[in-house]
Amino acid sequence: MEWYVIDTVVSPSVGVCFSCIRGFKNLKLTIWYQADIFLAPGSMIEPYDKGVLINGKVYPITLYNVTRYNKELWICMKEKSLCPGSQSINNKYCNIYRKCMVSICPFGLLRQDPEDKITRGNF
Q1: Most CB contacts within 10 A, which of 18, 46, 49, 77?
Q2: Which H/E stretch holds residue 77?
Q3: Are 6 and 28 in contact, with CB atoms under 8 Å apart?
Q4: Helix-strand-coil split of the chain, %, nearest 5
């Protein structure tokens, strides 16, 4: 069964991502997961015995929960996400990288440390 990613929210304080996915008969679900890949809107997901196929490639994924999509809850999660990449504002820098538990920034934001050295993505 194929699922398509509609949107993704990152929770930097716990390092978990939430993706709204749509599948058979337009059934919408919210998945809670950790993975080495960011499920961008438009990505296609297919269950596989060693993880999932994402756009045709196998990736390991730790799936924590699957729930029925709730529009009001999703809007609340997006509004309360501290991740600057989850906001609709185009950010170049991450202002919370010291608190972020995500090992690689899925949005490719730059962090700026106290010595003004700029590095990309890896926190």
Answers
A1: 18
A2: helix 71-80
A3: yes
A4: 15, 45, 45
What's this model's pTM, rounded to 2 decimal places? 0.80
89 Cβ neighbours under 8 A, 6+ residues apart:
none
pLDDT tens track for 2-20: 999 999 998 888 889 999 9
Looking at the DSSP bridge assignments, the partners of residue 9 are: 18
- Position of tokens 């996915």? 21
- Count up the domains in the chain and report the number: 1
The answer to whether 40 touches 9, Cβ cutoff 8 Å, is no
Q: Is 71 exposed, middle or buried (0-12, 13-18, 19+ CB in 10 A)?
A: exposed
Alpha-carbon dihedral 38, 101, 89, 66, rounded to 10 degrees: 50
Q: What do you get for the CA distance between the two ends of the chain, in Å?
A: 35
Residue 38 sits in a domain of what CATH number? 2.40.50.650
